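Researcher: Batch entry, complex prediction.
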Amino acid sequence: MLIEKWLTTFGRYLMLMGRTFSRPERFRMFFKQYVKEMAQLGVNSIGIVLLISFFIGAVICIQMKLNIQSPWMPRWVSGYTTREIMLLEFSSSIMCLILAGKVGSNIASEIGTMRVTQQIDALEIMGVNSASYLILPKIVGMITIMPFLVIFSSAMGIVGAYGTAYIGHVLPPDDLTLGLQHDFKSWFVWMSIIKSLFFAFIISSVPAFFGYTVEGGSVNVGKASTDAVVSSSALILFSDVFLTQLLS
Amino acid sequence: MIEVRNLYKSFEDKDVLKDISTTFEDGKTNLIIGQSGSGKTVLMKNLVGLLEPTKGQVLYDGRDFVGMSKHEKVMMRREMGMIFQSAALFDSMTVLENVMFPLDMFSSMNLKERIHRAQECLDRVNLKDADEKFPGEISGGMQKRVAIARAIALNPKYLFCDEPNSGLDPKTSLVIDGLLQSITKEFNMTTIINTHDMNSVMGIGENIIFIYEGEKAWQGESSQIMGSDNKRLTDFIFASDLLKNMRQIVIENGLHI
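Model: Structure tokens for the complex:
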């Protein structure tokens, strides 16, 4: 019964994506929406991404220094592990989980409210493909802006680590620099970006589906918003396992 | 002209519309009336294609809408305008942007022409100095007028209104009714209004279809309602004692409304 329900939901999701990925009726309108969504979903998230990344970078560095580093370990280990954690997991996966909460609930509640207030019906009556008009710019906008968020996050994490060195005097800045530069593989940056592109698609398309298919009133919009965050978070974690295995 | 032939609509085991056949004429305000839950909104949704009929035909000037392909339906919808119960204006857009939206999507006009046309439509519904306001900043009556302006922006042939007076005071309702009737005449549109507002029924009802439990129970003009012997219709229209007594007086004294 549960499997049947999941399969039905997945089928409906695929059908919605089929409608979403159709040629926009007016590229001028699509572009306008695309820029708006990039600003609303991406640019407006930069603040929270930088804030969280700064503190996580600092905390990881402190934890590594206090709990891992010993006389038997090289001096660069704290910087090295901070960089690897930020780059491989935090900036791509964990940051996307955070964004799934912020952006996901925003998308689900916005589209859900449009559904229950008949704004989507109004679009359909005008002959507009509402799925394509509303969802496609969000997906494309999110995919465009996500690599920048990943890079900003990694950079800010490192700034946070330097904060512990220069302000907190947890470790010498030279040791941190040594660790950050040790055995750097540029592929890890690409891996982080590739993973984030998949997650960007999940963060934008799954909440859009929950919002678009909402029925009823404001209570259902709230429920759809929660379901959207839970589902997209679970999907990010699930796909993270496969992507990490695939790209490593 | 819109012709409905033997239309049925069921949801699972429940028959909501049963064998509806009627004609909605050009240049007239066609009203669909009935109690809440009688199937009025379902009928309208079937007419505009938001719901698929279980059986039957909907003909737009002879073109079968139900049998059309998805693409044909999309093209057909560009000839329709609709005013929703809640106005359904786009929250994130200003009044002017809302009215410009159909023009942005489907017209080949340049920006200047689109703005001019949108302002023309807003002037037509007597809405001035509200261009830059958002729907949340204007009253319910103004929202309905913006919805009318948006609906007529592309000069539609068919105009659908789902309870346009819902939530409005009687005076504003009269303004909206007057506007809908004059626009219908001006553009010779086929206008269908879904309502249970008795002022609208008696004021602008040129062709009234009364739906009772999913069936067409009566059809006629507002002038025929007073003397109608259809008990379901008179029970619905003259529901209050005041209206019942007024009807009695009108009939006994041979008066006309």
